[in-house]
Amino acid sequence: MRKIISRPFIPISIAFISGIIIGKNVEFPFFNLFFFLAIISILLLFSKRKSLFLLLIFIVSFGIFRFRITGLYPINHITHFIDRLGQEKLEIQGRVSQEPIIKNDKTSCIVNISSLDGISVKGRIQVFIKNISRETSGITYGDSIMYRGSVFRADKNNNPFSFNYREFLENKHIYGISYAYSNDIQITSSSRNLYYYSIISPRDWLRKRIERYYSPRYAGFLKAILLGEKESLPSQIRKDFARSGLSHILAVSGLHTGVIALILLLILQIFIRNRNIVRIITILLLIYYMLLAHAVPSVQRAVIMISLLLLAKILQRKVDSVNILFGAAFIILLINPSQLFSVGFQLSFVSVFSILIVFQFFSRLLNPLREKCRFLFWIVSLVFLSFVIQLILAPLTIYYFHTLAFGGIIANVLAIPMISLVLPLSLLSILLPIPFLSICYAAANKLLLFIIFLLSDFVSSQRILLFDFLVLDAFQVVGLYGILIVLILIWKNNDSFFKILVKSSFALVGLILLIIIPSLISPRIFQMTVLDVGQGDAIVIRTPNRKTILIDTGDKTEGKNYGEQVIIPYFQSQGIKSIDLLVLTHPHADHTGGAMSVVENMNADEVLLPKCEYESLLWQNSLEYFSKKNIPIIYADTSLSFDEFEPVAIRLLHPAFDYTNANNINNYSVVLRCDYKELSLLLTGDAEQEVENLLLGDSDHSKLLDVDILKVGHHGSSTSSSPNFIEVVSPDYSVISVGENNRYNLPKEEIIHRLENYGSVFRTDQDGAVVFIYGGNTLKVQTIVSGKEIFDSDI
């Protein structure tokens, strides 16, 4: 009990977090919840004996209540009718509520809507503005704007284990997205309030000072670590820092905020002798800095922790870093409970907790080294600290990103001391009013930045230090953290070394079993996943003997690369490290656009494609890239065999090697039939009625057309799926891969009705990805977005 009283924020935060988790996953009638909370409050107020259990129940209930009220919106809030708006063009009026982000020829801004077509509406949306000229749209914080456009929800996780962009935005209280051109935007009025002059304007001044003294590469880095702005950082730099285990440096974290707090304390103590006044001013300046840095979760946590620590000093209370950490978590979640489900929040708090708990204990073991050689002590401490953070963050890192960068253990030993020097040098070069001194400090800083970038490039290029395509489920993550806690408790006990070793061995055996057993007991199944790649195709077949076939790779457009953004993340989530057969059914971009990105990130044993001439830079570049990567190219022919995929039987029905069609490249589409036990499926690419008639007219092939599952040809166009063809195929399940609100108005209603006469029809634009799982007895069909689930034992 004394430990609980001495560290009150620990049980309070854990109970509050439990309430938030329950509130997210369990529906409670709001009135019943409010009534229960009121009863508990009365019992606590008037009970003579204060019950710890009752208090914790109250905090859990309050956590549920706090999370549930975040989903209560006024009657005219946009969430109530956004799904009914469709693609209708409306007159949208609102006020820009955050500083716009400008990147190349695009502007992104958050708008508080005031009306849609003259009707009063509340809620925030993200507006993406395409700048017509090289100049920006001219929009800034506080502007009231008006334009005509559509408002719709962001994409959910349409594919298994994909990034949920809608949830990401809603956690930031953004409930819709809209697109416009800069010449369509009308600025109706501009207002400059205190926030603009105290935060926006100084932030813009700092940004310009950074750009004045540093090249774009270094300026983007400094804006990320000082202002929390990663938008101007090239994606390749972000990838390199992630692969080298240095991505935490790119965030305004506790290290950065701690250095700034130390600088403030040192400067203020020169002019003010009263330490408490110095601490109060430091707290206020840190809060101001937090606002300058966009109040990102990592800087929120750091500023709250440092402020609580300084407040404890002012009140002459004992400083307990762990209690302060949990206090910071409680305050952040009280303000915005959705932060709990933010990856950044979880990684930030787990990393700091690991430092406070584990390093504090193990540093005692290194005390003899501190007395002998202080420099060696700090080197060993940094290596150990880096290792501990990597170890404790590993379950979360694998769960979310499916990678583990061991290069960070060494890279951080060099990078952390350098970044501690980069921060003060950056501030001196930016803030000093004397240009000569600013140039001198910037020159010294550039040398350090050059070394950091060189270190990141070198470590990220060492593939042996990067483990990717790793998979852990939520149960394993919880189990791993349970075992880590047991290990910490074992080592904290004052047992003999032998007892500690024996107990640790049992815990480590449990750790190994937790990771290995799920893969050993996983059933051998056939699985086909039709991914949602918009107006394109991408199908993954996983055979019972763990072979992988990828059929088409979706498109690559200016804003979307389905190979990189959908297919690779899906493979990572499944732990699939290589492709046994990549099939590109025909050369059109909506089937081949992501191919180069896929083979750039993972191995492909061979590529199957039709032999045809096609004037396309993308197609030619893809063929050259396959040759460069030494990937064998197999040209489609009906005589090909695919014995390596047994017990799955694969037959190529079209095209024959000598097939020619100068008029329609769709009819070169590779048509495959797959059989596993009693299950059969037909994949037709974009093959049109000419190919369907060829197959119907071939006595050998026509007998192979009757299947259980059909991947509908050409996205449900009327040029495919002729009545005669569908009558012969007679599919129990049909899947149409098609983009939402596509300009071709596909799939056609006549095709849908034709297919529905034979069985169930799934559409990726409405259902998201469609997954077929067959173990030999029962076929399971599930959809990711619409949540449909079918079990069929009649296959």
Descriptive overview:
With 795 residues, this protein is of the alpha/beta class. It folds into five domains: 2-69, no CATH class; 78-191, OB fold (Dihydrolipoamide Acetyltransferase, E2P); 198-340 and 405-468, no CATH class; 474-521; 526-792, Ribonuclease Z/Hydroxyacylglutathione hydrolase-like (Metallo-beta-lactamase, Chain A, 4-Layer Sandwich), CATH 3.60.15.10. It has 28 helices and 27 strands. Helix 3 packs antiparallel against helix 4 (52-69) and helix 10 packs antiparallel against helix 11 (297-314). It is globular, with a radius of gyration of 30 Å. The mean pLDDT is 87.
List the helices and strands and how they pair.
Layout: H1 2-6, H2 9-25, H3 30-46, H4 52-69, E1 90-96, E2 101-103, E3 106-116, E4 119-120, E5 124-130, E6 143-149, H5 165-170, E7 177-181, E8 186-190, H6 194-213, H7 216-227, H8 235-243, H9 254-271, H10 275-292, H11 297-314, H12 321-335, H13 343-365, H14 367-372, H15 374-401, E9 403-405, H16 407-431, H17 435-461, E10 466-468, H18 474-492, H19 497-521, E11 526-530, E12 539-542, E13 548-551, H20 562-574, E14 578-579, E15 581-583, H21 589-592, H22 595-601, E16 603-604, E17 607-609, H23 617-628, E18 633-635, E19 649-654, E20 671-676, E21 679-683, H24 689-697, H25 699-702, E22 709-711, H26 723-729, E23 733-736, H27 749-756, E24 760-763, H28 764-767, E25 770-774, E26 779-783, E27 789-792
Helix pairs in contact: 2-4, 2-12, 3-4, 6-7, 6-16, 8-17, 9-10, 9-11, 9-16, 10-11, 11-12, 12-13, 13-15, 15-16, 15-18, 16-17, 18-19, 20-22
